[in-house]
Design brief:
Mean pLDDT: 84
Distance between the termini: 34 Å
Largest sheet: 4 strands, antiparallel
CATH class of the largest domain: Alpha Beta
Structural class: alpha+beta
CATH topology of the largest domain: Nuclear Transport Factor 2, Chain: A
Amino acid sequence: MKMTKRVILAVVLVAAASALNVAQARPKKSQLIKEASVMRHEAEAIALTKVPHGIVKSGDLEKEHGILLWSFDIARPGTKDITEVQVDAKSGRIVAVDNETPAQQAAEVRADKAKK
């Protein structure tokens, strides 16, 4: 019985330490903003060149695969699809443009919640 409690305690401690390391590994937003050469409003204007008459629904600064990106979800008139445009936060270059259906958007939200 004592051995089972020790094993459980050890597993809990390892899991807690791992969670702490993951949380510390993520850079804070304030640090990411300091690293960005392109400000949000500039990146939005760049992203909107790919989606004429689009409306920015959300935007975020994130590091993906070692690249600092502004990522915007842009609604397009006449469709429920969203166009995701990623702009390099250092150069202002458009890195990716992807169309997402409502089903894909919902799956992305679920995946983001699972990460947190």
